[in-house]
């Protein structure tokens, strides 16, 4: 192994041990952590600085319970605390809990009940993303009135802010929205209603019917949604919400009901 790679691996293990000590024993000073690790305070400080820089720890004045602990006449002791991001790096049972809950819902209320839960779970996301998209569209229209507004790009930015790491790109047949992270992938693998509800939300936010081509939940590298073209930039029409339990109509059957682009030039 290359010496630099070996050192990096050792650093990673030490930082994991620091995080584990803070999880097990609560907030601690650099000196307390160094004692537990069997290294010098200067050595542990380098790892603490890296963890603070990564957002996994934060340094605060005072004791573990919020009281101020003084070191003799000096300033209050500064202790390191795990942040929410630091805690999220440890294993959680959220997926197991969600799966147990949805299995119970499915057994009690059937597929329609699972669909209702999926739609409710995404309702807040849709409201926030819709507000962000409309704001971005208005701003883009003000800044560049001569350029068409790309709602898919605006939606990608909104979804990225929600943790989906999304991008949008144009292709010959329209456009694609790609989500490189799925917060509920393990649950959606068993309950595809989550993916279906999310696809419906994307369709409403871009203002046209869309087609999901790939999902992380089913083993693909990214979630890919096709937005049929040519893209109607600035279109704010909302497709009808499909009746729960019914499959979306084939693309050929939807052609006549696609939102009308009122900006198209009328033939002479």
Spell out the key features of this protein:
globular, 12% strand, Arc Repressor Mutant, subunit A, alpha+beta
Would you give an account of this structure?
- The chain is built from ten helices and six strands.
- It has 268 residues and is α+β, with helices and mostly antiparallel strands.
- The protein folds into two domains: 3-88, Winged helix-like DNA-binding domain superfamily/Winged helix DNA-binding domain (Arc Repressor Mutant, subunit A), CATH 1.10.10; 94-257, no CATH class.
- Strands 3-4-6-5 form a four-stranded antiparallel β-sheet, covered by helices on one side. It has a two-stranded antiparallel sheet with strand order 1-2.
- A hairpin with a 2-residue loop joins strand 3 (166-171) and strand 4 (174-179).
- Helix 1 crosses helix 3, helix 2 crosses helix 3 (41-53) and helix 6 (111-143) runs parallel beside helix 9.
- The longest helix is centred in the middle third of the chain and has 33 residues, at 111-143.
- Mean pLDDT is 80; it is low at 64-71 and 231-268.
């Amino acid at each position: 192994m290359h010496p630099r790679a070996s050192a990096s691996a050792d650093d990673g293990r030490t930082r994991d041990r620091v995080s584990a000590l803070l999880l097990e024993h609560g907030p601690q000073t650099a000196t307390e952590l160094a004692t537990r690790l069997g290294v010098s305070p200067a050595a542990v400080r380098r790892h603490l600085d890296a963890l603070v820089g990564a957002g996994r720890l934060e340094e605060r004045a005072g004791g573990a319970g919020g009281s101020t602990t003084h070191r003799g006449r000096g300033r209050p002791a500064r202790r390191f605390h795990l942040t929410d991001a630091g805690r999220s790096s440890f294993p959680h049972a959220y997926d197991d809990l969600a799966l147990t809950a949805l299995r119970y819902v499915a057994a009690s209320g059937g597929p329609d009940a699972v669909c209702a839960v999926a739609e409710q779970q995404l309702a807040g996301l849709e409201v926030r993303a819709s507000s962000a998209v409309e704001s971005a569209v208005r701003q883009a229209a003000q800044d560049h009135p001569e350029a068409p507004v790309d709602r898919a790009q605006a939606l990608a930015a909104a979804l990225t802010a929600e943790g989906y790491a999304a991008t949008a790109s144009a292709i010959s047949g329209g456009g694609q929205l790609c989500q490189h992270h799925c917060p509920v992938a393990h649950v959606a693998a068993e309950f595809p209603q989550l993916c279906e509800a999310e696809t419906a939300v994307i369709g409403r936010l871009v203002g046209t019917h869309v087609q999901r081509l790939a999902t992380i939940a089913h083993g693909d590298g990214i979630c890919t949604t096709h937005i049929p073209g040519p893209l109607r930039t600035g279109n704010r029409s909302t497709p009808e919400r499909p009746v729960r339990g019914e499959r979306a109509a084939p693309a050929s059957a939807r052609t006549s009901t696609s939102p009308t682009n009122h900006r198209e030039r009328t033939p002479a």
